[in-house]
Amino acid sequence: xxxxxxxxxxxxxxxxxxxxxxxxxxxxxxxxxxxxxxxxxxxxxxxxxxxxxxxxxxxxxxxxxxxxxxxxxxxxxxxxxxxxxxxxxxxxxxxxxxxxxxxxxxxxxxxxxxxxxxxxxxxxxxxxxxxxxxxxxxxxxxxxxxxxxxxxxxxxxxxxxxxxxxxxxxxxxxxxxxxxxxxxxxxxxxxxxxxxxxxxxxxxxxxxxxxxxxxxxxxxxxxxxxxxxxxxxxxxxxxxxxxxxxxxxxxxxxxxxxxxxxxxxxxxxxxxxxxxxxxxxxxxxxxxxxxxxxxxxxxxxxxxxxxxxxxxxxxxxxxxxxxxxxxxxxxxxxxxxxxxxxxxxxxxxxxxxxxxxxxxxxxxxxxxxxxxxxxxxxxxxxxxx
Length: 385
Prior knowledge:
This protein is α+β, with helices and mostly antiparallel strands and 385 residues long. It has two domains: 20-182, no CATH class; 189-384, no CATH class. It contains seven helices and 17 strands. The protein has helices spanning 2-67, 85-109, 167-170, 207-220, 271-281, 285-288, 303-311; strands at 121-130, 135-138, 147-154, 175-184, 187-190, 203-206, 231-232, 238-239, 248-252, 262-265, 297-298, 318-325, 331-346, 352-358, 361-362, 366-368, 378-384. The chain starts with a helix and ends with a strand.
């Protein structure tokens, strides 16, 4: 009998071990699949968050740019003598919202977001942003909005959660991204980037004339001002009508005389070709540093070529250095403003008359300084998270 028991034990033991092995294998498989699904879900959440953030950045940037254009002409009213500032602000706010909504629709249609998921919930707000406190205040219709906040999200509450493999176990996938874009104007200087030169025209403008006209008149926006003869559309097109932004007129003499109120700056040895290139392409850092040295004006040897170069800048936003000529005859740099050429003509004496309209300009080449005074015309688009 003992022999029979031993024999039976030997015959059944491997079967029990095979059963245990099967259960362990199934357990390992379940754990492996669960971990794999978790990895896929985590990756999917990361991809969704990244795409939402990129989209929110693009929407906020585009919306903020719409708020930084003081030259906007309401469609269908481009030939009216002037617009109330409140109307322009309200239209800009509406335009910013429309631009962002259109961009979001295009991104969703081309699959830039999560193509197999419903469109994200979008919340866009206009307002003001305080970089010191990080506080965003929604625009209530008073003053002018200067910042845009965009929030994109996939949530179960909104009915568009991100589809996850482990949703039955861990719940639906909620993910969101928020971006605030605003124009910082505490500009203390400029620096070229790997992708952009400084959009500065090496033509020093008399700061006294600029201060009397550029800052005072342009901000007053006196309707019917005799110096307001042009309107510049957002596309850069120029119309012979008023838009409540007065222009400033400057004279460039062929002999760079003291009677001029604008002087060509000599920033390089190749005077014949460098000025046209600098005005058109902008300044590199090695050229920009020369503005810190004692400046000298140079004669407009070829007024026709200079006129062609300035005319080619019509309707193009550019930075213009401001300064003055001291008693010793050298030029002093005092600041910077932004404007666009609307006209450049030559008289019988070979003098060039340059008419510039102020504008708002944002450039990635601007250097910001904490506590620095705000430049009314130049800023840098900043993203806050």
